[in-house]
């Protein structure tokens, strides 16, 4: 199902991102930590890490990398497909992460946002962020086949 | 039926103790309808659920939230055999209400996120994992009569 971002969605995402972006690394580290613990099948992509436990150095570093990608997506929200082209090629040809996992990570990002920003993460912000992360996942899946 | 360790039982009870069924019940369906608006297909008799404002103050949605959480309470209190207890509920959702079972998964995600707003850091990765295991078992129980 392709659901595009409305002007209101984009404004909501940008406003919320402005509030939370300074916590980007912490959000990424926590979301990734949770994903690896709650959905252990995702660990299959990280067997090259010495330590996959919550808050470990590789998890923190990678969480920051992932949220850097999300930040880039916010900046390029008006054209995610072309904006995230090289990231899509990376995921499609090098990383080859099964796209089902994008949904799993997105869910964990939303859980972390609810935990860290309970008053700001209203249902309206929740739906805008859910749609945005789904749109990012679609853009990342573009080059897969 | 799923197997639970003593630790997992303790964790589930710990989370559930902090859930005020009235408070969380009121928010639950509002969040679900706002985030997944297509589920309003099941709510034809609920009156006005077509704007965020209307959704947030609809008393029938609030009441249904409490019904759902009371059913979850049954599962918490009967962790070893709620699959059997849920069979009539599953059949009702399949044959009478005709709910696409993927919605059970969506509602479960809303439940987790609503609880996350309340419990915050107490819902640490290990607690979230155990809670997710529990909700997956509930979703599976709700799916059991879809055949």
TrEMBL record, chain A:
The keyword Heme applies. GO terms for cellular component: blood microparticle; haptoglobin-hemoglobin complex; hemoglobin complex. Residues 4-145 form the Globin domain. It comes from the Eukaryota. GO terms for biological process: hydrogen peroxide catabolic process. Belongs to the globin family. PANTHER family: HEMOGLOBIN FAMILY MEMBER (PTHR11442), HEMOGLOBIN SUBUNIT ZETA (PTHR11442:SF41). This is Hemoglobin embryonic subunit alpha-like. It comes from Poecilia latipinna (sailfin molly).
Automatic annotation (TrEMBL), chain B:
It comes from the Eukaryota. Signal peptide: none annotated. The lineage of its organism: Eukaryota, Metazoa, Chordata, Craniata, Vertebrata. The keyword Metal-binding applies. GO terms for biological process: hydrogen peroxide catabolic process. The keyword Cell membrane does not apply. Keywords: Heme, Iron, Metal-binding, Oxygen transport, Transport. One of its GO terms (cellular component) is blood microparticle. One of its GO terms (molecular function) is metal ion binding. This is Hemoglobin, beta adult 2. InterPro entries: Globin, Globin-like_sf, Globin/Proto, Hemoglobin_b, Hemoglobin_oxygen_transport. Belongs to the globin family. Transmembrane segments: none annotated. Residues 3-147 form the Globin domain.
């Amino acid at each position: 199902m392709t659901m595009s971002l409305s002007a209101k969605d984009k404004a909501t995402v940008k406003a919320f991102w402005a509030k939370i972006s300074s916590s980007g690394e912490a959000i990424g580290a926590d979301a990734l930590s949770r994903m690896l613990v709650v959905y252990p099948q995702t660990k299959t992509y990280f067997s090259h890490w010495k330590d996959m436990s919550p808050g470990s150095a590789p998890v923190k570093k990678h969480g920051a990398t992932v949220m850097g990608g999300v930040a880039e997506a916010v900046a390029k929200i008006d054209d995610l497909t072309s904006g995230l082209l090289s990231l899509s090629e990376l995921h499609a040809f090098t990383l080859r992460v099964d796209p089902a996992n994008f949904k799993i990570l997105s869910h964990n990002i939303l859980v972390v946002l609810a935990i860290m920003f309970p008053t700001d993460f209203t249902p309206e912000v929740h739906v805008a962020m859910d749609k945005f992360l789904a749109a990012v996942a679609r853009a990342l899946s573009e080059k897969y086949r | 039926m799923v197997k639970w360790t003593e630790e997992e039982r303790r964790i589930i009870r710990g989370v559930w103790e902090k859930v005020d069924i009235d408070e969380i019940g009121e928010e639950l369906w509002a969040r679900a309808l706002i985030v997944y608006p297509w589920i309003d297909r099941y709510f034809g008799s609920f009156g006005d659920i077509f704007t965020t404002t209307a959704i947030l103050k609809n008393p029938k949605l609030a009441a249904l939230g409490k019904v759902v959480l009371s059913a979850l309470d049954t599962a918490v209190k009967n962790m070893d055999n709620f699959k059997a207890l849920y069979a009539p509920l599953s059949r009702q959702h399949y044959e009478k209400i005709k709910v696409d079972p993927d919605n059970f998964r969506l509602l479960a995600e809303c439940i987790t996120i609503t609880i996350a707003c309340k419990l915050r850091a107490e819902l640490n990765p290990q607690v979230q994992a155990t809670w997710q295991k529990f909700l997956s078992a509930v979703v599976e129980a709700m799916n059991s009569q879809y055949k």
